[in-house]
What we know:
globular; 7 helices; Rossmann fold; single chain; binds adenosine-5'-diphosphate; binds magnesium ion; 228 residues
Amino acid sequence: MLTLVLEDLSLRRGEKVIFENVSASFATVEVHILSGANGAGKSSLLQALIGNPQYALTGGRIWLDNEEIQDWAPEKRSQSGLFMAFQSPCEIEGLTVANFLRTTLKFFPNHPLHQASATDFYKELYLLLEAVGLPKNFTARAVNVGFSGGEKKRFELLQLKFLRPKFALLDEIDSGLDAGARELVLQTIRELRPTTGFIVVSHSEEFAHRCEPTAVWRLENGVLKTAA
Ligand code: ADP
Ligand code: MG
C-alpha cells in the first residue's frame, strides 16, 4: 500500500486564506470524498497537490511514498503517480488526442506501451475510447476542443484508465454527467481501486455514497475536517 500524506498545508492569496494547516493521510485502495461549498478551496487544494504553480503552497509538506514532493515540478509529480481530472479540462488547439497520449507515454518509461508500435498503441487507444463511450474518430480530434461537457469528462476518464496512477484526484468529475456516464465513473473507480487511491470532489451525497468511500472530508473556512 502506498501513501499520500498532507502535513500542515497552507495556501494564501494576498490577504485571503484559502486553507490553513490542512493535514490528512490517503492510501491506495482507499477512496476519500472531499466536500465543501462553492469557493471553499477544494480545487485549490487539489491544484496545489499536483503542483500547479498558480496554487503554490505558502506552507506545509506533501509526502508521496515517503518522499517529500512539495518542491517538485508538476511533471515529476505526474511521473511519480499523481493524476488529476480537472473540473474544467483545458482545450489544446492543434494537438490531437492520439498525439497527446503518445507524447505523454514518452514521460512514463514504466508504462506497458512506452515503446509500443503505432499499431499496438492505436489498438489500446480504440479499446479505451470504446470503454469510455467515445467514438473512434476522437483520435484525430484536437484535445477537448469543441468537446461537450460530458465528452471532456469521458476523456479525463480515458486518461485515468490509460495512466493508472497511484493517486487520482477527481475534481467534480460527476458534475453535469448523465446517469450512464456517472456509472462509468463508478465502474472506473472500482476497476482501478486495487492499485489506486482516490480523492473525489463531489457535491452529490448520493454519488459520494456510491463511491463506497473510506472517509468523507469537508473543507470549510479554510479548515479540513472529517465530515460527520
Ligand atoms: P472550490 O473548488 O471549493 O469551489 P476554489 O478552490 O476554486 O474553490 O476557490 C477557492 C477560492 O480561491 C475562491 O474564493 C476563488 O475565487 C479563489 N481562487 C481560485 N483560483 C483563483 C485564482 N487563479 N486567482 C485568484 N483567486 C482564485
Ligand atoms: Mg472547484
